[in-house]
Write a sequence for this structure.
């Protein structure tokens, strides 16, 4: 349990949430070959959506980054659950899709997305260096500010 | 032609549309290895877009679910066309990207997306359990309410 | 350097930009097996974002197509950089994700996206025939009108 990545999480005082099942006919993640496709994750914490609001209205960039980090924790919870609890089996984070709920005129999606990207690279180093698409959407589920999906290669 | 999935479609009174070619320089689906990438499908029926409007304005959640189902029928038409007419060759529906045209303040994208997810799982069972990203976008082609793209593993 | 695709680019008077590194903790492209995942590319030129505005407000469809083409040039710059400078190693462009910043009521995303699709097919022929998802988003980074991400198979 105390591998390098778990240690880094602990250092940062971060706790991965439980890998909760969605309440619908889809799954948190699918596997094909050595790829994991992780469903779009919301900033859930203790089963409740956090970070409700839009960038450029309720939230500053810094607050949006924090919301993005919470999404990443949920992404990683599902990756870990699919790798028998061992995040060191991540070979490469291939792609993040980062959706930022954006009020009219808010165009700093890249800075908000850095909240997700920075945490991934802090935890995984070069293996965490990913491609990404960061876009500003009209609305997200439950009114949250950020949603993050991922494609991850494992070994 | 009357395999298990075709039988379920018939039971539900659902008919897959013709796998129509797009009128542009792209294709409905590409294949790499054992994966099919299906282009974002609109709720076309008999060559015409259905379900024109937004959630939270013209459409209720239930109506949006119906539009999402129509998109899925078009997704499956193209999957079938790429599998020599045999949908039982689907090994796993890996990912759905579900885009919901959302009026200001509409945040029930997951419920709308369930229209797509439920149909897929009804038809394919565990093989249909997919990862998904459901987001609310500003506008979709022709003003339709839902667009669905897919990544499908086959054998 | 003067292979068929470079020759077509030259014929059209198009110059691929430098494959510039993003100024954040992500990378322009990742590779898994024989697939390249290219990050969402903006219409950057000489290091500056072009095409700032929305479709249906500042830009006509034709102008949006031009912006989409500039995004594709950046996509191809990164594909080339990952293939030792040889774009003839592209086996198939599998998928484009095309995000169009859309003012209320603008629903011609497919026509704008054709700016990207047409250029890809002009350059790569059948190998360029891709699946795509074209959607209208609220806002894009720096206020640009189009963002294009890609998945490309190579040999």
């Amino acid at each position: 349990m105390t591998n390098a990545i778990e240690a880094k999480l602990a250092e940062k005082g971060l706790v991965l949430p439980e890998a909760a099942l969605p309440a619908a006919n889809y799954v948190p993640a699918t596997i094909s070959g050595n790829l994991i496709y992780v469903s779009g994750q919301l900033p859930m914490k203790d089963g409740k959506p956090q970070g409700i609001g839009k960038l450029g209205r309720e939230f500053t960039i810094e607050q949006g980054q924090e919301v993005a980090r919470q999404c990443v924790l949920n992404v990683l919870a599902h990756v870990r659950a699919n790798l028998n609890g061992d995040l060191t089996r991540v070979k490469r984070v291939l792609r993040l899709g980062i959706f930022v709920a954006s009020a009219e005129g808010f165009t700093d999606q890249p800075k908000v997305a850095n909240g997700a990207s920075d945490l991934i690279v802090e935890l995984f180093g070069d293996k965490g260096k990913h491609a990404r698409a960061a876009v500003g959407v009209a609305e997200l589920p439950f009114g949250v500010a950020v949603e993050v999906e991922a494609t991850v290669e494992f070994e």
Observations:
- The longest strand of chain B covers residues 90-101.
